[in-house]
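DM from R.C. (forwarded with permission)

"hey, sorry to bug you on a friday — could you get me a structure for this? deadline for the figure draft is monday and I only need the backbone to look sensible"
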Amino acid sequence: MKKNKFGELVFLENDIVNQLMINGTVPDNLIVEDVSVCSNQLEKVPVFLKATDVSVSVEDFDTQNQSNWYMPEEYKNFDIAEYVLGLCSTNEQLQRVGKELLLYQEKNLFNLLRYLKYLVDKMKQNGIIWGVGRGSSVASYVLYLLEVHRVDSIYYDLDPEEFLR
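My reply, with the result:
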């Protein structure tokens, strides 16, 4: 196995043979360099995924993947700005959220906010515990309202620019 420049774990022919020797089968959705590897020698042909073309720039790869968020349609069409503004109870909170939402919109990150809402909802539904918060993300009051972290950045007077540079 090796990692390509996109962080994908690419299985080589020897890795597939090892899977066969150890488990007697090969799982679906392995990313391989050559999708024809071993396919004519297996009874049940697994579904192989082709590794991303390494001639594509990392920037193009990121842009392409940022348009493919794997979440239910209800979240893809969710008005995240209205939702977060609706969670505010003071003028100070409204001002802060408004400022941050402009920064998120400027950086085209509304889909990220929608995905984080979906992720937090799923973790709650499944009883998964996540951390209090890490790094500069705790400077975002919007992320606090979405419950991505539990640090009230208004209370601690944290500058949202620290996160949204």
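R.C.: lifesaver. Residues 73-162 form one domain.
me: no worries. The radius of gyration is 21 Å.
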